[in-house]
Each structure stands twice: as structure tokens, then as C-alpha cells.
Amino acid sequence: MDGHTTTSSTDAAVAATAELGAWVSRLDPAAAPAAVVDRLGLVVLDVVGVAAVGARTDDQTALRRAWAVAGGPAPLFGAGETAPVDTAAWLNASAMACLELDEGNKYAKGHPAVHGFPAVLALAAERDATGADTVAALLAAYEVAARFGRATRLRAGVHPHGNWGVAGAAAGCARLLGLGAGACAAAIDAGAGMPVAGHFDSATTGNPVRDAWLGAANASGLAAARMAAAGVARNTGTAALSLGSLLGEFDPGELTAELGTRWDITAGYFKRHASCSFTHPAADAMLALADGRTVADVRVETHALGAGLSRTDWDNRLSAMFSTPFVVAAVALDGAVEPRTYADGRLDDPRLRDLARRVTVVAADDLTARLPGQRATRVTVRYTDGDTRTAEVPNPVGDADHRPFDRDAVIGLLRGLLGDDTVLDRLVAFSTRFAASPRVGEALRGLAHLPATATTESATPESTAADSTVAENTAPKEEE
């Protein structure tokens, strides 16, 4: 990139970031459509709920022990502990993502909420913020992260965790600190200058550093907002350099397109399978095709973004979550892909491994052409009796554009994951009431001390999909 192009790009990024910062500083949740605030409550319910489930896994328990958490004003959701703000932001982000169940957004090409909600909620607990300010900060975090996700086209091989989303965390924390327009823009710019350059293969090969990238994103967002509050941050169009020339391509125009009229939080998806979202349409199609007959082999045609998840070998939960053959085989045999699908011993089940080796994943140009509005997948199953059937799914079940989840569906999903209605009732109460609360600190800390339930590590890997509310209400049918 020559000097003229660099100057042009950074100037455009400065202007767009300044406009975005001004919007964040004056974001008033009372002026937002009621559907937007309702959707925010549902996203909070989802991500805090799955963080509480993730916190009880063996690896997250060990991580907290190694971290030597010493108590503080912010909750560690579902862990029975509180912690300093930065620690809570990091550990909650890791727990939120570790089971691949947190809400995402196909237009952002990743997960806006987990990039900033842990930092905002930890800071809100420390400051005992009002419900209105917490809502404004969470909306700022989501919308700014999603816009940076839209604006960024990462180089092949770069994983989206921990890079474009840092700006969202910075925006949310800056809004919660009550910073003005210029300072909010400076915070966003500083966040955009602290990206993680993580490779996608770290996920497919099962390296948990992938979850740490989200912890780093939230900690960096807090740092960026504090830099701006101190007056030592500047808006210099950093995103055009960090997210643009270094990590990919960056279009500043996406930061302000339809600003104030388009709310990306309403276009997200909720996940019913504990696996990478690219595997979900294949899982949904397989649910439609699995009819009790023995499967000879499976051909999965998908878009270019998902075609790389073709590994037929795995050695831990994370690498299995990023294997379409694993997910398809698990659905065919169990009828579901849940946290307990990855329990000790199940990953090495010879029947599951044998079937996964007979699953082929290929890219299909006609499906790639439908991006980003559709993340379509076509699955063809050949049975041992010689019959062949095909199902095509345009988006994962739970996407805003395809059999979206309402509140009852999200509650049904979490009921199966949490296994305790007392826990669920407390989460639902918080998610529906915090927006109108005069202060949120104590209620947030109450979400750390949720009643104990069985961990995901020790559960028996039997599917409950057949009798779960979500499965009954959203089970996919074969596409026409």
C-alpha cells in the first residue's frame, strides 16, 4: 500500500470513527426501538447463561484456580466467585465462548456480544451503573463491534476472535464511563489498534488460546476506554492500518452506514448446537435426514467459509467443535450436539469416528455466492440400503432469517443446558429487569452465586433433543 492510499484510508477511518464516537456518546436507550432493547435482553440472557454453563467445565475451573482470583466487585458468572473488573472480563469471555454456544452475527462474521459484554458487565458491576446506562453501553458494544466486523475483511487464515471486536468493547466501556464524543472516538480508535492476529487453525487443531483471544479483547477494550478517559488516546484512523493493511482490508464506510437506523443486534443468531456456527446447517440438515436407517456415507456441500472444517480427526473438545464430520456424525448417532457430547470417552467413540471418516466436506460455488445473507449447506446421505436423500438449509436454525428463536426457545435451550430452573429463573429475571433497574451492581454479582448444577464434563452423553422444548419447536424439515 503506497503512502497516498494509506493517508486516504486513515483519513476516511478518522472521519468515520469520529462520527461513530459521537453516536456512542449520545446513545439513549429510551430512543431505541422497543424491539432492539427486547432483543438485547435476550442476547444477555443467552450469553450470560452459556457463560454460567462454561464456567463449570473442568478447564474453566482449573483456569480460575490458576488465576488465583482474590475477590472483587465483578461477578464470574455461575462460578460462585467475584473478581476484579479486568479478571472478570477476561474469564467470563473465555467461559462464554468455550462451549461454542454464544450468540453470533453472520453480517459481522463473528460474535459481537462476547467481544464486549463481559467487559461492560464487569465495569457496570464495579460502578453500580444504572440500568439505562448499562443498556446503552451494551448496545454500543454490540453495534460498534458488528460494524467493525462488517468493515473488516480478514486475510485468509485469520480468525475473527480478538481483532475487529476490540473496538466494540472499547465503545461500550467508554459509554459506561460517560465519555464525550471525542473521547469515545479515541477509545474506539485505541481498541482498533490492539487486535489479536490469531490463526484459524488454532481453533481447528484445538488450541484453547482461541478462547483467550476473547479475554484479551475485553481487557483491551477496558484499557482503551481508560486511556481515553485519561486523555492519552487519539483518533488517528488506526483501524485502516491494523485491521486494514496488516490483517486484511478495511472499509470505513461500513462504520457509519445506516447509523442509528439499522440495529445489527436484531440480525444475529442463537445456537442450539455446541459447535462452530459453520457446522450448524449441516447438523440441521442431518437431523432432517436421519431416519433410523444405517448411513453409508455423507456428502456436505457448503460455502467457502465453512469448507475448511473438514478434518476427520480431533483430539479435544475444541477441535471436534470445528469439525463438520464430527458434528454430522454426532447428530446422526445421537440426535444432538450438546456440551455433554464432548464428555470424556465420547470423543474416542469408534462408531462416531468411523462415521465421521465417511463424511466428505466440499465447497460449492452456488452456495458461496449466497453469502453473507445465507450460510447455506446441502447434505446428501447415502444409506446402506442404496437409497439417497438430500436436504438443503439456507441458514442455521436460530438465525434471525431462518426459524429464529424467540424468548421461549432461548429459555428452553438454557433449561436443558443449566439443568436447574432456579438458576434459569434468576437469569431470566435479570435479563428482563435490568434495563429498568436504578442500579445493577448487586443483581450482577448475584449471577456469580447461582445454585450449583451438574457440570458438563460428568454428564452422560445421551441426547435430550427429542424431548427438549427447543427441538420440538424448531426441528428442521427437509428444504424444498
Automatic annotation (TrEMBL):
Record's compositionally biased regions (Low complexity): 452-466
Annotated signal sequence range: none
InterPro entries referenced in this protein's UniProt entry, alphabetically: MmgE/PrpD_sf (IPR036148), MmgE/PrpD_sf_1 (IPR042183), MmgE/PrpD_sf_2 (IPR042188), MmgE_PrpD (IPR005656), MmgE_PrpD_C (IPR045337), MmgE_PrpD_N (IPR045336)
Top-rank taxon: Bacteria
Ranges where the MmgE/PrpD C-terminal domain occurs: 273-410
Boundaries of every MmgE/PrpD N-terminal domain copy: 19-232
UniProt region (Disordered), positions on chain: 452-480
GO molecular function per UniProt: lyase activity
Family named by the database record: Belongs to the PrpD family.
The protein, known as: 2-methylcitrate dehydratase PrpD
Organism of this sequence: Prauserella isguenensis
